[in-house]
Amino acid sequence: MTFITDSLSRADVLLCLTACIAFLIYWINGSKKRNMPPGPTPLPLIGNLHSMDMNRPHKSLMELSEKYGEVFTVQFGPKKVVVIAGYKAVKDALIAQADDFGHRVEMPLYKLYGEEKGLAFANGELWKSMRRFALSTLREFGMGKKTVQEKIQEELIPLIETIKSHNNKPFDSYIILNSAVANVICSIIFGKRFEYDDAKFKQIFRLMEENNQLAGESKVMVYNYYPLIGSFLGLHKKIVKNTQEQLDFVLEYIKMRRREFDENDITGYIDAYLLKQKQESVESETYFNDENLAYTVRDLFSAGTETTSASLGWALLLMAKYPEIQKRVQEEIRTHMKPGQMPTADDRRNMPYTDAVIHEVQRFANIVPLNLSHMTVNDVNFRGYSIPKGTEVIPFLTSVLYDKSQWKTPYEFNPNHFLDSSGKFVRPEAFLPFSAGKRACVGESLAKMELFLFFTGLLQAFTFHPPAGVSREDLSLDPEIGFFLNPKPHLICAKLNN
Fold it and tell me: Which of 279, 438, 465, 479 is the most exposed place for a label (fewest CB within 10 A)?
């Protein structure tokens, strides 16, 4: 009886190995036949996951790009993914062939966040309608104009006062910076700001941070590429819960604005959307429903907060680590701004070094390393390869911001990347932290203004340094695990300038 059982077990193992080898041969031959981009040989079932740093996938992809070039294929579990690396290739894909690579990929993780509604994860006419309306409405409320500049300047006052209240003692800047940045987009979306100690406001940041960390963890990758296994293990439930809490916060405010709605007094994005709904109510088919409003507001709030606040967090940490750079920025501020004068967007043209430092923070911090994945909308020919319709494509932003052919010292924090020989500001074409093409960040102009005004205002008021007993060499520049690369939790001190 034992002999039979053992024989059956060996037969089962042999059958499994044969099937796996057959699958591997099929995949390799199929890829060659279709002229897919080259890449590492995958293992059965797991693909190339065994050779990936699952917590830092951008590092593994950078190593693969060194070996396989600007277009290559990796297999995450059972799914083939094409990676486009380097400035020139990413630019060609997102701009020259924008229509070919213009769709957001249909991915289990993305569906948890957006269910293909709103702005970030939608496709087709729905996405076009939401993006068109968002861009035009945000412009009406002053995005990139002096009206938004005033909102940022107004928010700079409580931000400085909050930091001042710590009396040069160590503090965590995460919630403070998130609150200040979020209040700018809140003033546009909701028509109001929130106090930094508002419990619901702080809870939203906690949910955003937790979801960001979860999205970067290897266990969520299991759900993404093995959804049946992931669902069975319940790996996605926390993200679903957190996302619903965020939507509930938005829906509660939408209901309030609907009760108080006055078409002659449009105070924010939600009011403008409600007016659009009223104008289109006679149409039987419209994308302007409450569900899309909730997801769009959530997307705008998240996009208008997370990356900008993360950039500011990195900026203050880098200034504490490199005091000589901070000192030079402050000298430029004192030269071109009067004491107590609020920074303005017009000051930027007279402050090339400060502008260079801000841009280098964004490049070096590499906040969105993998970009949001795209998808081919048809069979695509790119760089001599054939990429089938429906293939996930990663326009790899790390490879652009750290492209050795575009940056002199890509792995060092070096503001000279944005200065010419005479000290004037220059913006290299490979500076693409907001991505490019049709899916570029809708809030790019707002983020640029916020970064300059907040950063300049903070360095005008304070000098940032490590806590007592911590040397600047001890300040880690390794990012926290997450989809967005935030600084690791740390304390910092802010000494009030005379």
Answer: 279
